[in-house]
Fold this sequence. Notes:
- With 215 residues, the chain is α/β, with parallel strands linked by helices.
- It has helices spanning 30-54, 69-77, 95-101, 126-137, 205-211; strands spanning 2-10, 15-26, 61-66, 106-109, 159-162, 168-171, 195-203.
- The longest helix has 25 residues, at 30-54.
- It starts with a strand and ends with a helix.
Amino acid sequence: MRSHTGATMTLGKGSVYSMSTRQKINTRSSTEAELVGVNDAMSIILWTRHFLEAQGYTVNDNIVYQDNESAILLEKNGRHSSTKRTRHLEVRYFFVTDNVRRNKLSIAYCPTGDMIADYFTKPLQGSVFRKMLKQILNVDDALIDSSPQECVGDSDDGLTRINQDGTAESRTRQDDTQPLNDLEDEDSKPTKSSQQMMMTKSRSYADVVRNGEKG
C-alpha cells in the first residue's frame, strides 16, 4: 500500500513551503515510508539552502525533524543500521545519508505531539488542530476563534456582517436581501532567517490499520 507524505518548511517561524502527496512506491512499514518521504522532500530542502546562500545568507542550521527513531538511524548511518527487514531498500534512498555526511543537513528527533507535518497527513481536531495551525501560520491565540460555532439555520439572532474596517453589523433574516461583502485577504509578507527547518511525516497503511482508521 502506498503511504502519504506530509512535510512543511520554516525559516524560523511560520511555514514557507508545505507538501502533502501520496508516495509513488509501495512500502511495507512505517520506517520505510518515513525514509521515502524524506527522500521525496530532499530536492526542496537542498534547493532552499542553496538559494539562501546565493542571496548572501549563512544557513547555520538545516534540520530535518522526524518522529520515527528507526528511520532516523537509517538516514544517519545508511546500511550500517540496516537489518534483514530493510536490506531490500534501494540505494538511492540513502541519498539522505550522503547529504548528512557532507553536512548539508542534520536529522533530529521530534516527539509525535509536536510534529507539525502531521497536519498534512491526516485530519486533526480540537486543540491539536489549533496548535498546529498557529505554528504553521505563525499567529497567536487572539487571531484564532475557538468559540463554539452555530449553524445559521438554527439561530434566531439573525446574521452578523464583518466590515472591512473591522466593525460588526447585525441584521435580521427579514433584511437578508443584501449579499455579504467579500473580505479581501491581506498580502502576506515573507520572512527571512538564517535557520531552515523541514519537518516530514509519512503515514503508512500499517499505521492506519493499527489505529483503526478507515481511509
